[in-house]
């Protein structure tokens, strides 16, 4: 199918355009790289190239409307009521959308002249990192906008969750950008365009930065950035945010510039930036994060991840906080203990926990509702969400205060959370809650313009307008009775399209109405053959009020909504603190619930170099085998970087399918859980804080960059060997398997030596090179572990039990049989294996290792082996002088020597 050839709006001359199309060209000039959602009545319409792109992406019809300079104008449109769904799809596909709304009623435009067009303007630019609508967001996942800036060799990453107002900024080294971005998992990342020439940074952004949005480098200059950040927060100085570095100001400035552009001047309700450094959280690089499947499996699913298995939260805010904690485990022992104290308190107060969780289920997503209100996108339901959620918090605080166990008060984290949820301690918040309780009705529409959300009895003038609007007939009947009684003349109040409401009397009885004093009240309007029509000042006023009642009622409701919206904006800090407090309570109680379900225990986290797990289990795998009705085999693991309480490095051997990879990942996940403030699935667990976690498990290639599986393995291994330190935890699986046997063994051996002697970190090293087992005898802090398997009646049984010592064999042929390899192939493999295993000499002798001490011997000619008995006898034979009989006897003799 041929591509369209119609010029784009950006290249067209707007001269001669109709007034409406002139508006479109103006909007397109302001946002040339966005699709313009141009409001036309009940539709959003797209023109020119935008129409082609939207039609192809959304699967909608593309037509033409009118002409411009003699060419038909391509057009596509979506209904206003369904726009959110179409927006969601476009954003997921990577488009940027500028929403151009009608800023006035068409009737208002006509007052300026019959040819006047409705005034329109861009009210927002929708990008992946600036979404706030529930329909466009994952309620249980964060949606972050990030920015990266580098000044004078110092890097900074800033992040804003626009839908909740959370702002963070990290000061770090260039090398630490990747782990932080991987932890934040932003939907959109802003970066100065000059930085994209840095290949390493560009690749980092590609891997973990969501949609990468290049920005003019001038926007990240500290002076201009500082001015924009001040405008964003409405402050005169940034001193209140601490001593922000130029890089931090530059990153925040990029975000401020992006928000100014996308939010059309509306200021979001943002919290003060929470500052951190790369040394505040455990560094987990993107490859490690992917292999451990912390919040997503390697296929991108949430189900099957660590987060999905432990998540028992009942609120959206709690779910997002739990995901954030798992993504960024802490390094501060005191902060970790505070989180663990909160979980332990809920473990000990089981009945109270269950009651609190039932109440928590009634909490809404107050933080996101507040953000929409601050940006002018919210509605009465968002106010209702704040009202209902504050009431839930008030109930929770009351329940905790009435705890039946006064000897065990809530720990620090929970105590502060319950205080934040007590409106009485915050006068403004308490008054606002009372206002919403009294002012909001029971049935709340999504939009203020739909009306009907202000409770009856709150505003008398609104009640009167509603009465006129909804019950005008009763009002007219009451006035009719009143006028008849006052005049003594039988009257009727009627209505027509010309006169509106009027008083009507029969011609024979109307005379008194022309005489004093009634003629001062009744004003003659019309005389017919049989009737005379009058009006009164009161009726004329009532007529106007009835005609305008609906409009006035809606205007008063919208005014009430705007008043409450402004109050919410002014109380944003207190509301956000309350929302965070609810999330903390939800997370702590949910983790206690999971701990009880999974039989998890409180870990001991300290400043040592220990890693001592007893009876530990992989939380995800255990959950899966339990669903299948099978038992899970727990295992111990003891490491100590200092070498005092255990080995620094454990070599893990065993057959495929025995559970080596599960064992490795299991221990890495224990560290993540413990430092996130969670209980761990083990009989006991002591952990010296891990500053960096590295995992090289699994195989994959990077075809786009021309990297083979082995090359990717070496790149990741290089990162580990150059960055791991004494506080790091490293798990390596099958290093060196992607190349020739001796090359692979050499690499694996050298890596093991480096981890032990140079990096001096805690490490688990799984391998099929059983020769590495000799390291236990040659190095001070190395141990051997193996995953047991047994042959039973010709079949291989995996015991999934980690025991001391190396594996006795690899059982590769047996695993091939289990995998369904054809029996003739399995039989032939067993035959070849038997022959190889019965050779007198091993193909490689490693008695004289360490390996690199042999490097000189490798290039020398190998020593000639002593001649065998067969060779000596054969050398002594005089073949030319032998008779046939003697030759036959010699052949038998040689054959006999082969058997000895």
What does this structure look like?
The longest helix is centred in the middle third of the chain and has 34 residues, at about 535-570. This protein has a seven-stranded mixed β-sheet with strand order 13-23-24-25-21-26-27, with helices on both faces. Strands 3-4-2-1-5-6 form a six-stranded mixed β-sheet, sandwiched between helices. It folds into six domains: about 20-125, DNA repair protein MutS, domain I (MutS, DNA mismatch repair protein, domain I); about 145-280, Nucleotidyltransferase, domain 5 (2-Layer Sandwich), CATH 3.30.420.110; about 305-445 and about 570-600, Orthogonal Bundle (MutS, DNA mismatch repair protein, Chain A, domain 3), CATH 1.10.1420.10; about 460-555, MutS, DNA mismatch repair protein, Chain A, domain 3 (Orthogonal Bundle), CATH 1.10.1420.10; about 605-700 and about 710-815, P-loop containing nucleotide triphosphate hydrolases (Rossmann fold, 3-Layer(aba) Sandwich); about 875-900, no CATH class. By secondary structure, it is of the alpha/beta class. It contains 30 helices and 27 strands.
Task: Annotate the secondary structure layout.
Blueprint (H helix, E strand, L loop, with lengths): L18 H12 L4 E6 L2 E5 L1 H10 L4 E6 L2 E9 L3 H10 L4 E6 L3 H5 L9 E7 L18 E7 L2 E8 L4 E7 L4 H8 L3 E5 L6 H10 L2 E5 L6 H12 L12 H17 L11 E4 L5 E2 L1 H7 L13 H5 L5 H12 L5 H16 L1 H11 L5 H9 L5 H22 L10 H9 L6 H13 L20 H28 L4 E5 L3 E7 L16 E5 L3 E5 L1 H34 L1 H27 L5 E3 L3 E7 L2 H9 L7 E6 L8 E5 L6 H17 L7 E5 L3 E5 L12 H15 L5 E5 L7 H19 L2 E5 L8 H4 L3 E11 L2 E10 L7 H7 L4 H15 L17 H5 L9 H8 L7 H16 L1
Parallel strand pairs: 1-5, 7-10, 9-12, 10-11, 13-23, 18-22, 21-25, 21-26, 23-24, 24-25
Antiparallel strand pairs: 1-2, 2-4, 3-4, 5-6, 7-8, 8-9, 14-15, 15-17, 16-17, 19-20, 19-22, 26-27
Helix pairs in contact: 5-6, 7-8, 11-20, 12-20, 13-15, 13-20, 14-15, 15-20, 16-20, 18-19, 23-24, 26-27, 29-30
């Amino acid at each position: 199918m041929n591509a369209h050839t119609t010029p784009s709006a950006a290249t067209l001359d707007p001269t001669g355009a109709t007034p409406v199309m002139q508006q479109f060209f103006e909007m397109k000039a302001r946002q040339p790289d966005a699709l313009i959602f141009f409001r036309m009545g009940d539709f959003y319409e797209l023109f020119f190239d935008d129409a082609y792109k939207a039609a192809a992406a959304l699967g909608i019809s593309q037509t033409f409307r009118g002409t411009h300079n003699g060419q038909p104008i391509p057009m596509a449109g979506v209904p206003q009521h369904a726009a959110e769904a179409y927006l969601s799809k476009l954003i997921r596909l990577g488009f940027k959308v500028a929403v151009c709304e009608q800023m006035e009623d068409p009737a208002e435009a006509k007052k300026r002249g019959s040819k006047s067009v409705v005034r329109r303007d861009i009210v927002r630019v929708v990008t992946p990192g600036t979404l706030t609508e529930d329909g466009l967001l994952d309620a249980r996942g964060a949606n972050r906008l990030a920015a990266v800036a580098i000044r004078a060799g110092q890097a900074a990453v800033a992040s804003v969750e626009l839908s909740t107002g959370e702002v963070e900024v990290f000061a770090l080294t260039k090398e630490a950008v990747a782990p932080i971005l991987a932890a934040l998992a932003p939907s959109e990342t802003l970066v100065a365009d000059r930085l994209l020439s840095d290949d390493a940074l560009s690749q980092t952004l590609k891997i973990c930065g969501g949609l990468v949005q290049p920005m003019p480098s001038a926007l990240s200059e500290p002076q201009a950035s500082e001015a924009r950040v001040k405008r964003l927060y409405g402050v005169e100085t940034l001193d209140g945010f601490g001593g922000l570095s130029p890089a931090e100001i530059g990153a925040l400035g990029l975000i401020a510039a992006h928000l100014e552009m996308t939010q059309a001047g509306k200021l979001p309700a943002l919290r003060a930036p929470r500052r951190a450094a790369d040394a505040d959280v455990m560094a987990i690089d993107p490859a490690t994060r992917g292999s451990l499947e912390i919040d997503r499996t390697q296929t991108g699913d949430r189900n099957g991840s660590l987060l999905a298995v432990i998540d028992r939260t009942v609120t959206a805010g709690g779910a997002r906080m739990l995901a954030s904690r798992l993504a960024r485990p802490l390094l501060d022992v005191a902060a970790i203990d505070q989180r663990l104290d909160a979980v332990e308190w809920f473990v000990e107060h089981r009945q109270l926990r269950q009651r609190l969780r039932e109440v928590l289920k009634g909490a809404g997503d107050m933080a996101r509702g507040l953000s929409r209100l601050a940006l002018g996108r919210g509605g009465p339901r968002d106010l209702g969400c704040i009202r209902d959620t504050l009431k839930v918090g008030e109930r929770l605080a009351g329940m905790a205060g009435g705890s039946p166990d006064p000897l065990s008060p809530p720990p620090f984290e929970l105590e502060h959370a319950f205080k934040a949820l007590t409106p009485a301690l915050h006068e403004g918040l308490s008054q606002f809650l009372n206002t919403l309780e009294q002012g909001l009705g029971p049935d709340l529409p999504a939009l203020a313009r739909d009306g009907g959300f202000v409770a009856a009895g709150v505003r008398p003038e609104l009640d009167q307008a509603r009465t006129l609007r909804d019950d005008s007939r009763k009002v007219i009947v009451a006035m009719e009775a009143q006028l008849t009684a006052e005049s003594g003349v039988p009257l009727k109040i009627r209505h027509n399209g010309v006169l509106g409401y009027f008083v009507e009397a029969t011609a024979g009885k109307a005379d008194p109405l022309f005489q004093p004093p009634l003629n001062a009240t009744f004003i003659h309007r019309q005389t017919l053959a049989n009737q005379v029509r009058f009006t009164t000042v009161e009726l004329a006023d009532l007529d106007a009020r009835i005609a305008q009642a609906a409009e006035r009622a809606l205007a008063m409701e919208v005014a009430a909504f705007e008043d409450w919206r402004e109050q919410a904006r002014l109380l944003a800090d207190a509301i956000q603190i309350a929302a965070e407090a609810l999330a903390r309570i939800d997370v702590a109680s949910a983790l206690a619930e999971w701990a009880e379900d999974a039989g998890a225990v409180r870990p001991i986290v300290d400043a040592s170099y220990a890693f001592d797990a007893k009876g530990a289990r992989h939380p995800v795998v255990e959950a899966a085998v339990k669903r299948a009705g099978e038992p899970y085999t727990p295992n111990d693991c003891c490491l100590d970087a200092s070498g005092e309480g255990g080995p620094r490095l454990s070599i893990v051997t065993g057959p495929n399918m025995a559970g080596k990879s599960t064992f490795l990942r299991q221990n890495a996940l224990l560290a993540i859980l413990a430092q996130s403030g969670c209980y761990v699935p083990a009989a006991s667990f002591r952990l010296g804080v891990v500053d960096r976690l590295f995992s090289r498990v699994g195989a994959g290639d990077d075809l786009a960059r021309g990297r083979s599986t082995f090359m990717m393995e070496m790149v990741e291994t290089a990162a580990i060997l150059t960055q791991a330190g004494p506080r790091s935890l490293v798990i390596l699986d099958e290093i060196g398997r992607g190349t020739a046997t001796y090359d692979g063994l050499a690499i694996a051996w050298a890596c093991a030596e480096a981890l032990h002697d140079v990096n001096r970190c805690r490490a688990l090293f799984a391998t099929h090179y059983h020769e590495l087992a000799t390291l236990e005898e040659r190095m001070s802090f190395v141990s051997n572990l193996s995953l047991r398997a047994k042959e039973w009646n010709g079949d291989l049984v995996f015991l999934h039990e980690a025991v001391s010592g190396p594996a006795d064999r690899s059982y590769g042929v047996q695993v091939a049989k289990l995998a369904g390899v054809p029996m003739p192939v399995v039989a032939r493999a067993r035959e070849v294996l038997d022959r190889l295993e019965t050779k007198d000499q091993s193909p490689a002798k490693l008695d004289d290792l360490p390996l690199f001490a042999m490097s000189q011997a490798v290039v020398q000619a190998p020593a000639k082996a002593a001649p065998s008995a067969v060779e000596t006898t054969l050398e002594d034979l005089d073949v030319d002088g032998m008779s046939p009989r003697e030759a036959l006897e010699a052949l038998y003799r040689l054959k006999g020597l082969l058997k000895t």
